[in-house]
Design brief:
mainly alpha, 9 helices, single chain, elongated, 55% helix, 4 strands, two-stranded antiparallel ribbon
Length: 218
């Protein structure tokens, strides 16, 4: 790994490293950390590595095994920050009150059960009277995935109104109206019960954790 040039403005700069294109990220990271902490296994164990998901965690663990040539190691703390369990995430936040101030999330199954009749009500005026429960469930799951993607990207649902220009075909407008099921109907009821979508709560917990880490780096 190559270290980027430090900041020249007099302020302390984060140490940023680059890995050349075409080089295995996990192998380069593992070999670099092993070289840096050679002879001090406890220093390696005190290292924390944040990765996006569990798959990348498994890949890095395998890379440590390859790069250590089978030598026993105390591995670093490797955490899938994008898929960390909510209980674990909540436990990492320093101020317990910060967790309790965030509204609870609606259960995933409850969300689908609430979305299904809303989808049915949307489709009936369009000739969808004979649609079965299995199809309604698939459409509800699609809406739930879309909402999670919106929440994770911190998109403002009010901007949906500007998503499709007037000159676009009618089927684009039908799609837009379908997406508005979440914003105009489901979200309204959830807010009245002081609940959040699962992804929105996760984003808020991650924001609190990031604030904690800015004050007290791990």
């Amino acid at each position: 790994m190559n270290e980027a040039a430090p900041a020249m403005d007099g302020h302390a700069a984060a140490r940023v490293f680059t890995i050349p294109a075409g080089v295995s990220f996990v192998d380069a990271l593992a070999s670099s950390l092993l070289a840096r902490h050679a002879g001090d296994d406890f220093a390696l164990a005190d290292t924390r590595i944040l990765l996006p998901n569990r798959r990348s965690v498994r890949a890095l663990e395998a890379a440590f095994a390859r790069c250590s040539a089978g030598r026993p190691l105390l591995l670093p703390r490797i955490e899938p920050i994008g898929e960390i369990e909510e209980e674990t995430l909540s436990g990492r936040i320093a101020k317990a009150n910060d967790v309790f101030e965030i509204a609870p999330a609606i259960d995933d199954i409850a969300r689908l059960l609430e979305l299904m009749p809303l989808v049915g009500s949307f489709l009936r005026p369009q000739g969808g009277r004979g649609i079965g429960a299995a199809h309604l469930l698939k459409l509800a799951e699609a809406l739930a995935r879309w909402q999670d993607a919106m929440d994770l990207a911190r998109c403002d649902p009010d901007r949906l109104d500007d998503l499709v220009p007037e000159e676009f075909a009618d089927h684009w407008r039908d799609t837009l109206e379908f997406l508005k099921i979440v914003r105009d109907h489901w979200m309204k009821g959830v807010r009245e019960r002081c609940l959040l979508s699962p992804a929105r709560r996760r984003v808020m917990l991650l924001e609190r954790l990031a604030a904690d880490w800015r004050e007290n780096p791990p």
